[in-house]
Amino acid sequence: xxxxxxxxxxxxxxxxxxxxxxxxxxxxxxxxxxxxxxxxxxxxxxxxxxxxxxxxxxxxxxxxxxxxxxxxxxxxxxxxxxxxxxxxxxxxxxxxxxxxxxxxxxxxxxxxxxxxxxxxxxxxxxxxxxxxxxxxxxxxxxxxxxxxxxxxxxxxxxxxxxxxxxxxxxxxxxxxxxxxxxxxxxxxxxxxxxxxxxxxxx
Length: 202
Description:
The protein has eleven helices and two strands. By secondary structure, the chain is mostly helical. A two-stranded antiparallel sheet has the order 1-2.
């Protein structure tokens, strides 16, 4: 990828252009985005938050992430699966999160589907990492890939909601199934190292 879109911050760190575009992005870009994750709760959280991002910026969601975590029981999908209308109404009255009934109800639905998936596949991590593509560097970042389309299709078949191929690809980028840091980005080198030693679940 072109290093022209890598910027050097005032702290001397080379980042993908977006990672230096807002203060909240710096730690997220440097220590989270692209690093491989095998924790089911973190994977479920990210899929859920990507669903909330639909039509919004990730920065908006990132700024509200702690509020989302409070509202959704730390994204413990075993607990969320027991949520009902009372919890939905509570969250619709919570101004610290995105108050969208369809997206709130989708997280609850997806928590129930996650329990089914864990029962059949062993873990969310084992299931998700099954869709990891072969490593490659692309000249431009895609909005979706063959793998994200396959994962999206299979999730929808299993009854998941708000998991379109673009949403799913953003999930794959963030959770380290691909390394889409730009060439020359300092974090990208660390992500490559982390992926090289990461034990794939399942």
